[in-house]
Amino acid sequence: MSKKILIVDDEPNIVMSLEYAFKKKDFEVFIARDGTEALQIAGEELPNVILLDIMMPKMDGYETLKKLRKNKDLKEAKVIFISAKSKLGDVEKGLELGADGYVTKPFSIKKVVTDVEKMIV
Amino acid sequence: MSNFVLILIIIAYLAFLFFLAYWSEKKSQSRWVDNPYVYVLSLAVYCTAWTYYGSVGIASKSGISFLAIYLGPVIALPLWIVLMRKIIRISKQHKISSIADFVSLRYGNNRFLGALVTMTCLLAIIPYISLQLKAVSETFALVSNEDSYVATGVFDDSTFYIALLIAVFVAFFGTRSTDASQGKRGIIATVALESIIKLVFFLVIGIFVVYFLFDGTTDLYQKASQMTNFKQLTSFGNLENGFNWMFTILLSFFAIFLLPRQFHVAVVENQDVNHLKKAIWMFPLYLLLFNVFVIFVAWAGNLSFSGAVNRDYYSLLLPLQEGNTLLSLLVFIGGFSAVISMIVVSTLALSTMVSNNIIIPYGFIKKLVEGNPEANAKSIKNIRRIAIFLLIIVSYFFYVQFSTQLSLYSIGLISFVIIAQLAPSFFLGLFWRRGTARAAHVGMLIGIAVVAYTLLLPIIVNVVAPGSDLIENGLFGYSWLKPSQLFGIDYLTPESNTFLWSMSFNTSAFVGLSLLAKGNYRERNYAEMFVHHENYENLQEDAFVWKGEAYVADIKRLLTRFLGEERTQRALSVFNKRYNISEQEEKAGSRLINFSEKLLTGSIGSASAKILLASVSKETPIGLMEVLNILEENKETKANNRLLIEKSEELSRMASQLQSANEELRVHDRLKDEFLDTVAHELKTPITSIKAASEVLEDEGMPSELRQQFLQNISKDTDRLAKLIHNILDLEKLSSNRTDLDLQSRKINDTIQKAINGIEQIAIKKGVAVHFEAAGYLEGLYDEDRILQVLTNLLSNSLKFTEKEKGIIKILLEEKEQEITICVEDNGRGIASEDHKYIFEKFFQSRNQNIKKPQGSGFGLAICKKIVEGHRGRIWADQKFDGGARLIFTIPKAG
Q1: pLDDT tens by residue, B196-248
Q2: What sign does the CA torsion over B694, A53, B842, B749 have?
Q3: pLDDT digits (tens, 9 = 90+) for B275-307
Q4: I need a surface site. Which of B38, B157, B544, B545 has the fewest CB within 10 A?
Q5: Which residues of chain A approach chain B closer than 8 Å at the C-beta?
Q6: What share of chain B has pLDDT > 70, as a percent?
Q7: pLDDT in tens, B163-188
């Protein structure tokens, strides 16, 4: 069974790099540009991992996570925040909301990939 | 017209006046009642029956000398305004209710002086009132055609009943409040109306006589000039006559200040000192109008009647002769109006003076101290009512006894001469601090004695024992003591003669005695307050120096007797609050004494108020120097207090400024944090992108096409970073005003075109139409590069938010008075209404930290705003515009 990853970010250039890196590791990659799109795709595809930006148009990352967690089918999905918000308070808030990881921008793609792989083993 | 009908008309007219007075009392705040015109018209109470009828009589006998009585007030008026301003201010400050109170207060609440002034006024005014009654009675007889009817006694004389009705009117409307210093708007309204009526009807008869009985003024002049004594009637006469003129003018000048009724309407009833400004031109105009036709009516009368009639009543006889009953009735009503207004105001003023300056201070004060407030109010009102009735009845009997012998004009002049005796103490008292109460007493008494000897004695003797030796040859046969030609001056009229000598003796006595002995400290204190009123006006209760011992409880008990529990309580709590005095304070200070004196003055007069307060306190006399020192101190304390208050106000203002500055700083701080956060975020995004791309590029197996794409992304993100940094620096520079704008006069149309050219390629690619239409060239004063930046920014935003192939962008130009408005509108998705407030803030998305707005809107508008504001213009988004966005900004016009 192939691993599914959903990348949620409104910065196409960043998404493009992430997409390339995860495809390389045989992930099935889905892309959403905002929270609403993310909820829809996640509901349909039930990804194993969701990379979630916080600052997005329409619905922010926190809100999106809360809604994702309400879906029973997505209970097992690992959610990692990737955000430019790097203050300790932001990280804590993200983890308190039930995220499995918090990566601050700018990040190392290699590290994100290894972290994700570790998480779903 | 029959007696009966005429009486009915009089009663109807009086009933109407009752109604008007009643209505005005109720609507005393209405602009119909409280305005400068009513004030000016009430001053016209000066024109009595004497003016209305007497002027014509005197003009027919001795020509234009009647004018002197009206020239006085007209000449005096500019001075009158200046003096009145001072008199009114002093009177309002001390709650003065009559001229007797005014004079008595000036000389240290002197009881005897108040009484003396009152007596003088009575002496002057009672004959004057009887003169008015004489006019009513005689005109009544003329208008009613029942010649055979002759009153046989008091009770079938209609004049007696008319007088009684007037007394009822005054008693009813004049004594509604015990505080006599309070205005009586009802009475004043009727006086104002009567002033209109008497003027209009007098003009009507004048026009009737000149233009209907004769062919205009020229015709009348020509006919009159053929009469034998015409020259005498139209010339000013010789030097001696000039003296008579001068004295009469001076006399009327005094009268306009000193007549109790004039003092009452001008001072006591004044609602606003600024009303004087209207009076300065309207009152002379009124007098002028009143006198326009006098001489013509007099000529016409001389031409029409052979002299067998009373010349005073030409204005009534002329229409009667023509059989014009209506017109003669109008003239009668006009004269009647003049009579009523004079009697009403005079008796009102006199009754207040009699009660407050004679009856209460000399007889009733003990009784009042023992009475309760209701009973006291009742007693005071009753005293005044009885005084009103007595005055009118006495006047009536004086008329029955004496006035048949005298003309209207001579009684009027006698009255003026008597009232003029107040002049030295009144006028000099206003400007000369040395004037003393004793000097005022003596001066006034001597003046009156001279009047009595030279003017009244001959009249009385003529009635009692005609042809007496005393009148013909002088006292003890000395011709220089001949009453009407005192000291051998034989060219003056009796009135001028009396005026000259009485004023000379009066003034000399006043000045001489004042110089001889100083007054007591109380007199000096009030003298200082009157003379330098402007210095002490602000001192209020501190303006009067008092030393001694008194207890608040005693004073309170005293006040309660006159004002009642509630008003006393209210007044004292206001007083305590004003001076920050504890309610528990037992000892009364000089302020409370002064304050209470003022409170009582309105009800019982200043002399009684002083006596009452002296009865509940122990006053220690103070030296004059001490008085002046304390006054000076009070003034200083007052000034210091004001300074302190100003300082503390300034401090609290500064404190609140600091607080708001602090608040502002805190907001700034928060905004700065947010700004830095957002800057960091904005910078991190392209950096993340570059870093990620370079990492994936390490993969050697990447297809070259994709590799190319990544490299391009890196390049774009680098540009984005560079632009971002440039914008941040630019904005900071603009915010701290470190940029100098290169302001030049330019055509804004060209600049707009340049901006359009700059984005044209992108617009064509996206299929968005850009329209710019302008009616003509407009020149603005601006920095072209900067405004180009604004325009480009707005156009780029519009391009970004409009749909491909459907987008339309319009640029509109409008010329305003001072500025040019430039409007950029599109049919894109528009601006959410909740965002309107924030779009011009840098990184306005920071309102909600976690929601990101479309790229590029973070800085552009903030920079635009700074640039436009640097040009002293404004930029805003039109909130009412839907179907897209409309952003508008202004720049100054050239030149």
Answers
A1: 998 999 888 888 888 888 777 777 777 777 766 665 555 555 656 677 778 88
A2: positive
A3: 888 888 888 888 888 888 888 888 888 878 766
A4: B157
A5: 10-11, 13-14, 16-18, 20-21, 24, 54-63, 84-86, 105-110
A6: 84
A7: 888 888 888 777 777 666 666 778 88
Place of tokens 């920050």: B580
What tens digit of pLDDT does each residue of A21-76 get? 999 889 999 999 888 999 999 999 899 999 999 888 778 888 899 888 888 888 88
Torsion from C-alpha of B745, B746, B747, B749, nearest 10 degrees: -130
Question: How many residue pairs from chains A and B have C-beta atoms closer than 8 A?
Answer: 85
Terminal-to-terminal C-alpha distance of chain B: 82
Task: Give me the helices (H) in B704-783, please.
Answer: 704-735, 748-766
CA distance A49 to A120: 8
Give the dihedral of Cα atoms B47, B53, B59, B61; nearest 10 deg. Answer: -140
Q: Compute CA distances A59 → B466, B688, B752, whole Å.
A: 121, 22, 38
In single-letter form, the type of residue at position B20 comes to L
Phi, psi of B781 (to 5 degrees): -110, 105
Locate B385 and state its tokens: 């009512």
* Local structure of residue B356 (DSSP, 8 states): I
The β-bridge partners of A79 are: A50
Report pTM.
Answer: 0.61
Q: Where are the extended beta strands (E) located within A22-105?
A: 27-32, 49-53, 78-83, 101-104
pLDDT confidence of residue B598: 77
Give residue B464's pLDDT: 66
Question: What's the one-letter identity of residue B633?
Answer: E
Q: How many CB atoms lie within 10 A of CB B262?
A: 23
CB-based contact A106 B710, cutoff 8 Å: no
DSSP for residue B851:
B
- DSSP-H helix ranges across B34-184: 36-43, 49, 55-62, 68-93, 99-106, 111-143, 158-174
Let me know: does A37 contact A53? Beta carbons within 8 Å.
no
CB A30 within 8 A of CB A6: yes
Range with top average pLDDT, B421-425, B474-478, B619-623? B421-425
Structure tokens at B627: 């008085």
CA distances B890 to A113, B223, B669, B827, Å, are: 53, 80, 31, 22
Nearest CB to A84; choose among B685, B693, B699: B685
CB B94 within 8 A of CB B421: no
User: CB count, 10 Å around CB of B367?
Assistant: 12
Query: pLDDT at position A30, please?
Result: 94
Tokens of B360: 């209460």
**CA B672 → CA A55, B215, B676, distances in Å?**
19, 94, 6
B709 touches chain A (CB under 8 A): yes
Q: Please list the helix, strand and coil fractions of chain B in percent, rounded to the nearest 5, in that order.
A: 75, 5, 20
Report CA-CA distances (Å) from B721 to A54, B109, B138, B728.
Answer: 21, 92, 111, 11
User: Using an 8 Å Cβ cutoff, are B561 and B373 in contact?
Assistant: yes
B391: left (phi over 0), alpha (psi -120 to 50) or beta: alpha
Inter-CA distances, B434 with B273, B514, B531, Å: 28, 6, 10
